């Protein structure tokens, strides 16, 4: 790392630094200022970073990032779509013109404040921040930045809300109202297993083990552009095997029979997808149609706002209140950690703990 210092005609000083065969120039009003800039460059290079940050715009990098780093990552397709959406809808219009090397923590704060002023929820702002942080982490990896400015600010917090769940009478009213809908069987299956919507729709008959009453979860059905695809599971914990109750085994056997009848009726138009839940011609089910089913059925039953996630929450709540261990419920739900389950169902686990304490006291005659 050869260097030399020279005084210019304008009385400023220049330090010329030769690094890996390339010459870099650092200017200062004093020798000390010029040397300090050169020393900073040496330190960056020693730490594995670039001598100078890239001058290309953040938008330019995001366009490359979504098409390469994000596209080739092992993230779920739904997650990739989410990151692409935040980059396109919020980051690019708000701070996309800022050069990568000039991006500061204050720029990121400006992005988050703009989203807040637009009425975006805490979780939305947090997800957008995550998208930007990951994109900038990859910029550092690619040698475009020495450090990620997103790490200089605190990640936006999110106040957790207790999960909405249905009581047993409400479940009965919902299912009765859904009987006339094609995908009512999907609602029953999610209530009985706690699966995510995409996981249930991605199930194939080859994943069902009737002899051992279990189902293997290998992916999630999501929409990506004009296509419905089965992407990888959300987390490592999501790749799991779930036990099926006798009721759920019976439901699947009935579904298998109904599907066989539809196959005969569809004849050569039948699509051999092997999905457990299909359209009338054997194709994959549009996830939004399941959401529409539960919303319309809930409205007809006078239950107010109910989503597919509400069914999953109902399964978890019923399991915990009826003595199923938290660890088992967490594993069945495919949560990345038991803490996520505990945080989401705090009110339920507290009640279950009190019931458990009373049971132990009674068993010991205390």
Description of the structure:
The chain is mostly helical and 366 residues long. It folds into three domains: 2-46; 58-152, Tyrosine recombinase, N-terminal domain (DNA polymerase, domain 1); 168-360, hpI Integrase, Chain A (Orthogonal Bundle), CATH 1.10.443. 52% of the residues lie in helices and 10% in strands. The chain is built from 15 helices and eight strands. It has helices at 31-46, 58-67, 69-72, 77-95, 105-117, 122-141, 168-178, 184-193, 197-202, 246-266, 287-300, 308-321, 326-333, 338-344, 346-363, and strands at residues 2-7, 13-19, 22-28, 208-209, 214-216, 220-224, 227-231, 241-243. The strands form three sheets. It has a three-stranded antiparallel beta sheet with strand order 1-2-3. Strand 1 (2-7) and strand 2 form a beta hairpin. The model has no long low-confidence stretch (mean pLDDT 85).
How many strand segments? 8
Query: What is the global morphology?
Result: elongated
How far apart the termini lie comes to: 78 Å
If you average the pLDDT, what whole number results?
A: 85
Give the SSE string. EEEHHHHHHHHHEEEEEHHHHHH
CATH topology of the largest domain: hpI Integrase, Chain A
**C-alpha Rg (nearest Å):** 28 Å
| Biggest beta-sheet profile | 3 strands, antiparallel
What's the helix count? 15
CATH architecture of the largest domain: Orthogonal Bundle
Strand proportion, as a percent range, falls in 5-15%
Could you give the order of strands across the largest sheet? 1-2-3
Question: Which secondary-structure class do the elements indicate?
Answer: mainly alpha
Helix content bin: 40-55%
**Poorly predicted spans:** none
């Amino acid at each position: 790392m050869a260097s030399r210092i020279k005084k210019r005609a304008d009385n400023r000083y220049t330090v010329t630094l030769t690094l890996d065969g390339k010459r870099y120039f650092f200017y200062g009003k004093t020798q000390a200022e010029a040397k300090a800039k050169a020393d900073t460059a040496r330190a960056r290079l020693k730490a594995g970073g670039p001598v100078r940050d890239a001058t290309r715009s953040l938008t330019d990098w995001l366009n490359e990032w979504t098409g390469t780093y994000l596209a080739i990552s092992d993230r779920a397709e739904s997650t990739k779509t989410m990151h692409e959406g935040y980059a396109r809808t919020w980051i690019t219009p708000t701070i996309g013109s800022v050069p990568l090397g000039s991006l500061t923590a204050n720029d990121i704060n400006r992005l988050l404040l703009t989203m807040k002023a637009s009425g975006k929820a805490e979780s939305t702002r947090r997800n957008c921040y995550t998208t930007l942080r990951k994109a900038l982490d990859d910029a550092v990896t690619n040698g475009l930045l020495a450090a990620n400015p997103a790490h200089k600010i605190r990640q936006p917090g999110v106040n957790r809300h207790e999960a909405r769940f249905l009581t047993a009478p409400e479940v009965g009213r919902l299912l009765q109202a859904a009987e006339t809908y094609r995908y009512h069987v999907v609602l029953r299956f999610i209530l009985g297993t706690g699966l995510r919507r995409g996981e249930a729709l991605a199930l194939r008959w080859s994943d069902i083990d009737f002899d051992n009453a279990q189902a293997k979860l290998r992916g999630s059905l999501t929409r990506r552009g004009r296509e419905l695809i089965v992407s990888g599971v959300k987390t490592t914990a999501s790749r799991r095997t779930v036990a099926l109750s006798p009721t759920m085994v019976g439901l699947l056997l009935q579904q298998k029979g109904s599907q066989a009848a539809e196959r005969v009726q569809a004849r050569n138009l039948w699509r051999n997808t092997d999905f457990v839940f299909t359209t009338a011609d054997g194709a994959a089910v549009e996830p939004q149609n399941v959401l529409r089913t539960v919303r319309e059925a809930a409205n007809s039953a006078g239950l107010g706002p109910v989503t597919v996630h509400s069914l999953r929450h109902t399964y978890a709540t019923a399991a915990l209140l009826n003595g199923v261990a938290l660890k088992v419920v967490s594993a069945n739900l495919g949560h990345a950690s038991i803490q996520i389950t505990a945080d989401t169902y705090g009110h339920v686990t507290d009640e279950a703990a009190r019931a458990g304490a009373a049971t132990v006291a009674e068993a010991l005659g205390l």
